Amino acid sequence: MRVCLIYDCLFPWTVGGAERRMGHLAERLAQQGHDVTYLTRCQWPPDEPPQLPGVRVIAVSRDEPLYGADGNRTIGEPLRFGAGVLRHLLAHGREYDVVHTASFPYFSMLAAGAARRRGGYRLIADWHEVWSASYWRRYVGGPQGRVAHAIQRTCARLPHTAFTFSRLHAERLTDEGLRSEPRIIWEEWADDARMALASADGPRAADTRVEATTVPRSPSVVFAGRLITEKQAPRAVEAIVLAARQVSGLTGTIFGDGPERALVDATIERLDARDVVVAPGFVEPEILQAAMRDALCLLAPSRREGYGLVVIEAAALGVPIVLAAGPDNAATELVDAGVNGVVSQSDDARALADAIVEVHARGARLRASTLAWHTAHLQRVAAQDPLREILAAYAGR
């Protein structure tokens, strides 16, 4: 099958769950013998083009920042990327049986919809998130928010097959006017090797699981994510400092980079917390993995999540997670309170700190139940077989 994947981000040049899902999907499709093209924006030096085995990577727009000084997505980049996608599909659309795009940042999906009559391909879209009208107004302001919401709704009403990754966003997509039933995939992305290591397959994996149920001698809290307003990294710093007053020796690490990096550093300085919290920025995956494995918990106080990949990654290592409840946070669907983590009913720093202290108090029993939760989750994913589900959609089933 000839497949065109579309997203303006490409892992590892841009880091995030959606990027990893799309890149992983491209490689899996290529491994199965499908002809795969990946349309994206340029994110690499001219003399160092991407090398994805079996995948043609085509840059249809220039290298430019995704985020402005205010921490929000810029408007120029998605417009230029959408125009590049339109040009490519008008010229080459007939070379594809399927065009599979991320719905956001919308103009690329509109382009794929506009070129479909000439191309004749089947259109598939990943809806990682569906924002409410009120959230759009908060994000970009009243008039602009109404326009953005109207564009989102137009995309939802295009004839296509829609994949979502949570019940929250499946319901919102239906409310936006999707003409078919959204298909929920219960695993957005998975590194097969790491998942196997974290499962009870073989002596090495079994040893890892035993170690994971032991509470770390030096308790640490890990935050990992892009430092944008929605992720609330400065709030994480405040919560860790407050929890450290109740848990002897507690420290924290803020992994990631982004528009709020300076605010994170300033918060550490303001609280005189250099001995408690460090913020090293982005690090090699092996370093992050080791830090997660040794953590007391993973703290993710994000106000907005489309899925919650970080929950799965933490649970695979037996590490409970602390989340904050909220109307736009679908990650809470993956946390059973007291089983694989704690969901704070507020994103207030004090409430988050109390949740960290609760994880510490629950000790090894919570780590053991987190591993058990992960095993059950993998069984659910295996029963669904996400790749099989995707290929069925490609075939029109």
Automatic annotation (TrEMBL):
InterPro entries: Glyco_trans_1, Glyco_trans_4-like_N, Glycosyltransferase_grp1. Coiled coil: none annotated. SUPFAM superfamilies: UDP-Glycosyltransferase/glycogen phosphorylase. Residues 217-359 form the Glycosyl transferase family domain. Keywords: Glycosyltransferase, Transferase. Residues 16-182 form the Glycosyltransferase subfamily 4-like N-terminal domain. This is Glycosyltransferase. PANTHER family: SULFOQUINOVOSYL TRANSFERASE SQD2. Pfam families: Glyco_trans_4_4 (PF13579), Glycos_transf_1 (PF00534). It comes from Paraconexibacter antarcticus.
